[in-house]
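Need a sequence for this fold. Nothing fancy.
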């Protein structure tokens, strides 16, 4: 049960990272000298200064009709809500 929960959370985190990186434009490691580890690596990524904060207004989007993705998104949202209290 614990292993299944960890696998589900890992899937949710990877899905969340994929959504966050979907709008990236280009990636140039020579500018920062840092390697960015995102799975799967987007075709283009533009690294900028700043930060991204997850709060009560952050949207988690899933494919319509995908019950498993919806279940995981709800679990991830619940986890974030508990951490904000």
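Here you go.
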């Amino acid at each position: 049960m614990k292993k299944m929960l960890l696998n589900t959370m890992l899937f949710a985190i990877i899905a969340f990272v994929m959504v966050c990186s979907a709008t990236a434009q280009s990636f140039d490691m020579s500018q920062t000298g840092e390697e960015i580890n995102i799975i799967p690596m987007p075709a283009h990524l533009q690294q900028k200064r700043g930060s991204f904060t997850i709060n009560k207004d952050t949207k988690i989007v899933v494919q319509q009709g995908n019950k498993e993705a919806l279940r995981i998104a709800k679990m991830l949202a619940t986890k974030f809500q508990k951490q904000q209290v």
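For context: The two ends are 26 Å apart (CA to CA).
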